[in-house]
Amino acid sequence: MSDIAGLKDVKERVQIKIIETAKSPVKADLYKVKVGNFLLYGPPGTGKTFIVKAIAHETGFPLFMISPSTLLSSKFGEFEKNIKILFEEVSKFKSCILFFDEFDAIAPKRSSTNSSVMKRAVPELLMDIDRLNPDRERRVILIAATNNPWDIDEAVMRSERFDDLIYVPLPDKEAREKLFELGLSGIFIEKKLNFQEMAERSEGLTGADIKNVCRKAGE
Ligand SMILES: Nc1ncnc2c1ncn2[C@@H]1O[C@H](COP(=O)(O)OP(=O)(O)O)[C@@H](O)[C@H]1O
Ligand SMILES: [Mg+2]
Q: Would you list the domain boundaries of the chain?
């Protein structure tokens, strides 16, 4: 988590609601918090996938990283079959993280998809998600991420299926300064750099943008 620049509020929520809860089930029970389902949303390149990897690292839980391309296939019926296989695999683990990246493409609004496969498969996927933690023993952390939350199936968003919706914003000035520092730390540069000025002049850039700029500088 210390590699993540800025995002103080996000990190605090992730630390308490996801990491601590997963690591200390007894304490979590005492405070009546449970491992739940989380949605990370915000512009692309703001660190959502990065955060999920950090959560896996800190909890030590195995991570299933599922993107639309893992599940979708042009072959008829393949999506449903892949989902079935996925949940069978997940059920073998006592605890793990199930991460759906680009969730808007995995569970799209039914009104916006013409695909009969999706119309049938999405409700099934939701049922599988609901069945994830039937007893108190299993600790499956479900995290979904999206750049386009408004494209997600209405039933998912309405239904309180997510215990927490976490907005991951663009980095503020302080975070951009840290991103430049982190990004340029391994690169030998003769002139002393003014990170503060760089941060001031880079408003609107994402963490991914700044990472790319720094990489280019090192080439
Ligand atoms: N706040 C941040 N702190 C550190 N690195 C970041 C941050 N935001 C983005 N990055 C960098 O940008 C890369 C791409 O971010 P990513 O997590 O894929 O964004 P998203 O999933 O939100 O589209 C990450 O691998 C990371 O190196
Ligand atoms: Mg991502």
A: 8-167, 173-218
Looking at residue 137, its amino acid is E
Which helix or strand (DSSP H or E) is residue 99 part of? strand 95-100
Nearest atom in ligand 1 to the alpha carbon of residue 43 is 22
Tell me if 48 CB under 6 Å of ligand 1.
yes
Distance 208 CA to ligand 1 centre (A): 5
Helices and strands, number each (H, E), in the chain: 12, 5
Q: Which CATH code, of 2.40.110.10, 3.40.50.300, 1.10.560.10, 3.40.50.720, is assigned to 8-167? A: 3.40.50.300
Q: Residue 207: CB within 6 Å of ligand 1?
A: yes
Is pLDDT at 75 greater than 70 in this prediction? no
Atom of ligand 1 nearest to the CA of 168: 22
- pLDDT tens readout for residues 92-148: 998 899 999 999 999 988 776 667 777 778 888 888 988 887 666 667 999 999 999
